[in-house]
Design a protein that fits this description.
Pathway: Cofactor biosynthesis; thiamine diphosphate biosynthesis. This protein is of the alpha/beta class. It has six helices and ten strands; from the N terminus they run βαβαββββαβαβααββ. The chain has a single domain, classed as Alpha-Beta Barrel (TIM Barrel), CATH 3.20.20.70.
Length: about 220
């Protein structure tokens, strides 16, 4: 299963600096690889048409619909109080503001990471390290106030699978450039983190304070 990673754009047509489809298309050109369709106030037929238009901008399976109805596909993102949808979906995410409930989610969003202009007063801010501690081993997206390359990089360094961004991209006068700056910073920090990890063939012998290669058949194994 592939869970969201990198730059994930959340929609809100009321905040977009231009027509929503055009803004999202620009963000995708800039490096956004996933989109979460919110806009839950739209009439059903109109929202389903919007889902079709957004799917055309993305690789298959990369549009996630907020709410239990996938609008003709099979990926949803649930609010904390949303019921689970019918079985058979390929991807289920859930919004969390505390320790994730792992019983039904393939990934979670944790928020707010930083104070956010989209929801002023919403908090307290978790910070990247605080969010990582809550997530444990669950794939997580950092959400809230990620409006600069330095903040995007900090979330990657903390272990986020991706950054979920709304206002910084939708309100931008140049959503393509904004998306590119955030996606590039996040990707560079993730690459640096991966490079810094010890090679899987090296085992830490902590009791004797040394590193040695794992010999074939010696019963020592490492999972990463």
């Amino acid at each position: 299963m592939v869970t969201p990673m990198g730059l994930v754009v959340l929609t809100d047509r009321r905040l977009a600096a231009g027509p929503l489809i055009e803004v999202v298309a620009a963000a995708v050109r800039g490096g956004a690889g996933w989109v979460v369709l919110r806009d839950r106030d739209l009439p059903y037929a109109q929202r389903r048409r919007l889902a079709v238009e957004l799917r055309d901008l993305l690789p298959p399976g990369r549009l996630i619909v907020a709410g239990p109805d996938p609008l003709g596909a099979d990926a949803v993102h649930l609010a904390s109080a949303d019921p689970m949808p019918a079985p058979g979906l390929s991807l289920v995410g859930r919004s969390c503001h505390g320790v994730p409930d792992l019983s039904d989610a393939d990934y979670v969003t944790l928020s707010p990471i930083y104070p956010t202009a989209t929801k002023p007063g919403y908090g307290p801010a978790l910070g990247p390290a605080g969010a990582a501690a809550l997530a444990g081993g669950v794939p997580w997206l950092a959400l809230g106030g990620i409006d600069s390359p330095s903040r995007a990089a900090a979330c990657a360094t903390a272990g986020a699978s991706g950054i979920a961004v709304l206002g910084a991209v939708l309100r931008s006068p140049d959503p393509e450039a904004t998306a590119r700056a955030l996606a590039t910073a996040f990707g560079a920090a993730r690459s640096a983190l991966a490079t810094a990890r010890p090679a899987p063939a090296v085992v830490a012998a902590g009791a004797v304070g040394m590193l040695r290669p794992a010999a074939p058949g010696d019963g020592v194994g490492v999972r990463w």
